[in-house]
Design goal:
With 506 residues, the protein is α/β, with parallel strands linked by helices. Helices cover 45% and strands 14% of the residues. It has a 10-stranded mixed β-sheet with strand order 1-2-3-5-4-6-7-10-11-12, with helices on both faces. A two-stranded antiparallel ribbon has the order 8-9. The longest helix is centred in the middle third of the chain and has 25 residues, at 252-276.
Length: 506
């Protein structure tokens, strides 16, 4: 959670594992033709991108291609990059597509497309292709190269709750050094991975895939990307679902406070279940258990705990491990195991959870660049991050909101102040005037994207409609709530959203 202002990385890990498990059930409909460009010219300066023809190839259960886009939309004759696109074909005649994004920022959409396809009912699968486009700088779309695996491992260990000026300076330097490494190793692209530019990429891909409209299913950060697309291209919006929305009008500090409250609420929900059981390892009441966890974190700050492998469990890694387990109720038993081990001086389970958050392998390498890309994207979307002195003044408020997560998330809002690359396209408000109804889905006890953010997004969008899930965990559609699934599926079928304010209970 350190310095991750609007992270959803942990949920990406869970769905990625599921996606890998289910992807093989889909077979390519080889008799169905691959989509071709609409012939739509787009803006004159971008005509060659909008009208390009692409070659499709088999990629296991799907069809894959790449689409060329400019690195800098203000210089479309300059350097270009290729976006990796994966299409899970409809099991019927198809022709229509639903684009999806899992969040992050930093999540690869190509593998996620198979997971979403597997989650949809048969009639939607017969009708819609499901398309995942790895955003620029992420996944297989010319991924940003910043820190080495070893350097990023050290970055994770930086104290998220510094006690003195030296600790604050180390925190600032760690972010600055990552940004400088991105700039050095990735060149011009490091300055051009903003959400606005990624949204413009998706409009080119839409046209190249022969889609007159953009049907969108975005989760977490994918809601920000979808809403930004709708703001830029309201006349191209088809059916758009934003699940676990982000309030893009909030400042960095306000977003951080929102997440601190969200994770504290999720932790207390877990602790209520824990203490109601037979043997909660951290206490017999929510208050006692929360205080015990806070003490365990403070102890790790003073003295990291060594695992049998020789690796050290630092306070930062423990924060990530706890956060990882709060994204879904299904992972709460893992948190109980991790806390039991921590109380007994055993770091193994907590380290495993922390590693899963970043998709870190046992050999110390990382499966992807998501843990670094999130900083690059967020900081190019942000131009209001507080400096060290301003952040220090905020910490008491953060601690009051969340004794366990507050300080780490409080110091996290400073990150983009130290990012060395200027934000050229900071996030703008979204209204999407003229767009058809956009369905915003929020979960009442969502830790990473608090419910109030979905309420705000639905209000800000001119045609926003709010659908609510009463429950725990991050995002709603894949939570198993049939009421939510039915409402979303019906919207994709008909284009008609449920009544604004509809609530689905657990």
């Amino acid at each position: 959670m350190r310095r991750v202002v609007v992270a959803a990385l942990a949920v990406l890990l869970a769905v990625a594992l599921v996606a890998g498990a289910v992807s093989a059930i889909f077979l390519v409909e080889r008799d169905a033709p691959d989509p071709t460009s609409t012939g739509e010219s787009g803006p004159a300066a971008l005509e060659r991108f909008y009208t390009q023809e692409v070659d499709w190839t088999d990629c296991r259960d799907a069809r894959c291609t790449t689409v060329e886009v400019p690195v800098d939309y203000e210089d479309p004759t300059g350097e270009t990059l290729r976006l990796a696109v994966r299409r899970v074909p409809a099991q019927g005649d198809g022709g229509e597509a639903i684009f999806t994004n899992p969040g992050g920022p930093g999540g690869a959409a190509r593998s996620f497309a198979g997971y979403i396809a597997a989650s949809m009912p048969d009639d939607l699968r017969r009708r819609f292709d499901v398309v995942g486009v790895d955003p620029r700088g992420i996944g297989a779309s010319q991924p940003l190269e910043c820190l080495s695996d070893e350097q990023f491992d050290d970055f994770i260990d930086t104290d998220p709750d510094p006690d003195d000026a030296a600790g604050i300076a180390a925190l600032s330097a760690s972010v600055r050094d990552m940004g400088l490494a991105c700039e050095k190793n990735s060149g011009a692209l490091a300055a051009h991975v903003s959400t606005e530019e990624t949204a413009r990429d998706h409009d080119i891909v839409r046209a190249v895939l022969g889609q007159d409209e953009m049907n969108w299913f975005g989760f977490s950060y994918g809601t920000q990307l979808g809403a930004t697309y709708a703001e830029l291209f309201p006349d191209k919006v088809g059916r758009m679902v934003l699940d676990g929305a982000i309030d893009v009008t909030l400042s960095s500090a306000e977003q951080g406070l929102g997440q601190a409250g969200g994770f504290q609420q999720a932790l207390e929900a877990y602790l209520r279940q824990c203490v109601d059981g037979d043997s909660c390892p951290v206490g017999s009441s929510v208050q006692e258990a929360s205080a015990t966890i806070a003490k365990l974190m403070a102890d790790l700050s003073r003295e990291p705990l060594e695992a049998p492998s020789g690796r050290m469990l630092t306070q930062g890694r423990a924060f990530y491990g706890i956060a990882m387990s709060l994204y879904a109720r299904d992972t709460w038993p893992l948190l109980t195991q991790a806390l039991k081990g921590l109380a007994q001086g055993d770091a193994r389970v907590m380290l495993t959870l922390s590693d899963a958050y970043f998709e870190r392998k046992q050999d110390g390498s990382f499966d992807n660049n998501s843990g670094q890309a999130i900083y690059a994207v967020n900081c190019l979307d942000t131009d209001d991050a507080p400096d060290a002195a301003e952040t220090k003044a905020l910490i008491p408020e953060f601690r009051e909101v969340s004794p366990v997560f507050g300080a780490a998330l409080g110091w996290g809002v400073m990150a983009c102040h130290d990012w060395p690359i200027e934000a050229q396209h900071p996030q703008q408000p979204v209204r999407a005037e003229g767009a058809p109804p956009i369905l915003v889905v929020g979960t009442t006890r969502d830790p990473a994207t608090p419910y109030a953010w979905s309420q705000a997004m639905a209000e800000q969008l001119e045609s926003g409609v709010l659908l609510t899930r009463e429950g725990d965990g991050h995002t709603a559609y894949t939570s198993g709530n049939e009421c939510i699934q039915d409402a979303v599926n019906d919207y994709f079928r008909t284009g008609k959203p449920p009544k604004d304010g509809t609530v689905c209970e657990e």
